[in-house]
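Example 3.2
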Amino acid sequence: NLALTRASHIAAAQKANCVLVLPSDLPLLTVEDVEMMVDVASPAVRDGKSGYHFAGRYMVICTDQSAEGTNALLICPPTGFSFQYGPDSFRQHLAEAERLGMSKRIVYAAGIEFDIDTEEDWKAYQALQPQSILTN
C-alpha cells in the first residue's frame, strides 16, 4: 500500500490525471477490460490528441470473483487516496472513496475478476486453456 501511495504521488508529479492499479495475476485480462475501466469514468472527456482529461475526484473499481478483493482500481486524481489492499480490500476501497467524497463506479468484467491466488485458481485457469499453450 505504501508503494502504491508513493507511485501515485510520483505519477501526479509527472502530471498524470489518474492511476490505474492492476495486479499481475489476471491471466484473462484484455485490452477491452482496461478500456472499460477508463471508459466508464463519466467525468472523462477523450480527445484524439492527448488522450483523456478528467474532472472531479472519482474511483472506478472491479472486484475479484469472491467480491472481497480489488482486482482493478482507477483513482483520479492520483493523490490523497489511502490504498487498502489486503483482506476485504473491495469494501475498504469503497469506504476510502466515500471518506474522500469521491464519485464511485463499479465495473464487472470476467477478465478482471478472475485472478490466480490459490492452487484451485491455477487449476481452473489450466482447464480454460488449450493444452498446447500449457506445454510450450
